Every structure is written in structure tokens, then in C-alpha cells.
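Chain and backbone:
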Amino acid sequence: FKPLFEKFVNLCSDETPMIKRAAASVIGDIIEILGLTHPTFEQLFISLKGFCKSDEEESVQIFSMDSLAKILKSAATDKLSDAKKNEISVAFSKLIIDLSNSPAWKIKKNLAMKIPEFLGLGSLNKEQQINSIFLEALKKLLADSEVEVKVAAINAMSEYLDSFEPHITNCSKEFINEINQNFPKLKKLKFLFEKALNDNFFNLLKDF
């Protein structure tokens, strides 16, 4: 196994975009199969962080988000120490912040589309810290200058709220109130959020 692993890690650093896309698309599967406690995890996660943070190929970063979701899923099933969970949570938080600050609108749009899944997996892990980072990223994406990003963020907000229907948790209420306070100029968005809270008209958000 070791020679195969070393060869794969080397391919993760290959400059050919097609090879990097292929590696980014399967690295999450490999981590999910081996588990987060496997000795190879650290090296694989370093490669994944490289795909997310510094790669100029947008498609590579987008594929990397699927791998991030698989790591969160593994974190919910693998028996990890509190220190290991905290380490992963901190690393995830930094990656999400970097992706939400990307100058590329396609990356931010895809991040918005993945956030409901991230939130669901974060809740499964009972990781409030990382979920707060996802919510902060979503709030930032709702105020993005690109229309495509805003629409994706609105749909993500709808999907997130939908999981709490018909009872919205206090966390959701506080988050929506914060959105309304911070972005008073987005009057239509504010109206839709208030309708979702008061009347449970979740589909209004999807039609925005």
C-alpha cells in the first residue's frame, strides 16, 4: 500500500490540471475509506488543504469541497479524541473562511451550495464552533457583490431553514435577526426571512 500511497500524494502535486482535478475528486473517498485515525490522514489532508487554498484552477477547489464534506461525515462515525476533533474543526474553519473570501464567484457560489450539507454534517458531529463558521460564511455570501453568489446563498438559507420546519430553532431565529440587522438595505431579502420565521413560508426563499 505504501508505494501506491506515495505515488498518489505525488500526483496531488502534479501541475497538470486534469490530474489535479482527478486527485481532488477522489481524495475524500480515500480518507473516508481509511478513516481519520489512519496514519496517512495527515498527509492526505495537507494535500486537500493545498487544493482548497492555493490552487488557481477553480474546478480543483470546487471538487475539494466534496472531499471536505466526506471528512465531516467520517468525523461523525470515527472514534476521535476531543483534541483530534478540535484540530479538524480549526482546520475546517480556516478553509471555509479562505473559500468564502475567494475572488472567484464560481467558488463562492459552490461554497454556498455546499453549506447546508456542511451544516447538517456539523450538527451530526455536534460541533457548534464549526457550524458558527459556516453560518458566518453564509452571511458573507448573502452580501456578496455577485448576483449568482447571492442567489445560491439565498437557496442555501432556504434549505437550511427547511430542515427545521415547522419548528425553527433559536439558533436559526438569532441568525436571521442578525442578517436583518446587518443588511437593512436588502429589504426584499429581509421581508422573505421574516415571512419564513412568522409564517413558515420556506418556499418563498426558493422563489426569490
About this structure: The first helix runs from residue 2 to 12.
